[in-house]
Amino acid sequence: MATFLPSRLAKLRQELIIPEIEERLLGFMAHEARELNGSVMASGAMPDHVHLLATIPPSVSISNFVKQLKGSSSRFVTRDLGLPFEWQAGYGVFTIDESDVPGVKDYVLNQKAHHKSGQLIPRLEWNATWNYGPGDSFVPTPGVL
Hints:
alpha+beta, Alpha-Beta Plaits, 36% helix, globular
């Protein structure tokens, strides 16, 4: 089963993910996922947020996986790349069925094109009204993915 981690927001939605660090940031996050025995199947970034399609091993809690990726990537950008960087508090996670992986992967890999054209899939973008709780699941709208 794959996990989609939508919109890890830069602190206060600041445009901190500049082109000069984007590839290194996403590569570092993929490396950290592997260190936790997970994997990043796809990643995409905008100046103020990141989307990841990842697998998380059952031996690692989702909260610890996200905490590790956010904390280590923030330190990496700040210390190694010399730029002050923080993620916003919180995160969103959806588990998705294997049949939805190709559509979500395409969406994640083409973040810039989707944002430029305005052809966003609202359920895959951060939304201030999200109110998912334990036991809730992401159910894609038919035809959306």
